[in-house]
Design a protein that fits this description.
Length: about 220
């Protein structure tokens, strides 16, 4: 089940790539800030069969979207409504289903510098949201054990849309702060996500794992 809020074409592309591997894939709109939209998503998921995994990786883009022009508190409200409430609410909605099944894995997305600190408005805002998600991960893992595992990936400098167009200052800063001397890629995150959702990670829960080329230790 691939979700989107605005990027329907990209969601369709991802679903098409999934189908090429012989797996069924559906595309659904999901507005994380809206309780009815979240409930509809969970309802649609349960109709297809067991919910083996939930990946809470959607979030507000404050760097390249129109949201970058909002004031500080408006940005904060967006992050709390989408990133934090969305992650908490969806996790708690699928948890009873997974518990009844006797299995399941929830994966959240944090940020490697959120519990270390980064200056500036964006650093403060993302730290507020992602620290909440990382703390929630650890507590929910205890609540849902032993049937359901809950883990979190904390990415470092990942070359998403913002990274591709970042100024020379940021390009150099990434190299200076990353011992492996490169940007991370979405694939670097996906590889760990696949592992954490699989039975190969069956003895891992409540963990926040940095994927950052050694940048934060």
């Amino acid at each position: 089940m691939v979700t989107y809020q605005q990027s329907a074409d990209r969601a369709d592309t991802v679903a098409g790539e999934i189908r090429e591997h012989g797996v069924q894939a559906s595309v659904l709109p999901l507005i994380l800030q809206d309780a009815e939209s979240r409930q509809e998503f969970v309802t649609q998921c349960t109709r297809t069969g067991p919910i083996d995994g939930l990946v809470n990786n959607a979030g507000v883009d404050l760097l390249t979207s129109s949201a970058r022009d909002l004031d500080y508190l408006q940005k904060l409200q967006l992050l709390l409504a989408a990133d934090v409430e969305g992650t908490v609410a969806l996790s708690r909605s699928v948890a009873p289903v997974m518990n009844q099944q006797g299995r399941g894995s929830i994966l959240n997305i944090g940020w490697d510098q959120s519990d270390r600190g980064m200056g500036g408005d964006s650093g403060e805002l993302f730290a507020t949201a992602k620290n909440a998600i990382m703390g929630f991960t650890r507590s929910l893992a205890v609540s849902l054990a032993p049937a359901v595992r809950v883990n979190c990936i904390a990415p470092g400098w990942i070359q998403t849309a913002w990274g591709e167009s970042a100024s020379d200052y940021w390009q150099q800063r990434v190299m200076d702060e990353t011992p492996l001397k490169r940007w991370g890629t979405p694939e670097d995150i996906a590889h760990l996500a696949r592992f954490l959702l699989s039975e190969e990670a069956g003895f891992m829960t409540g963990q926040v794992i940095n994927v950052n080329g050694g940048a934060v230790r």
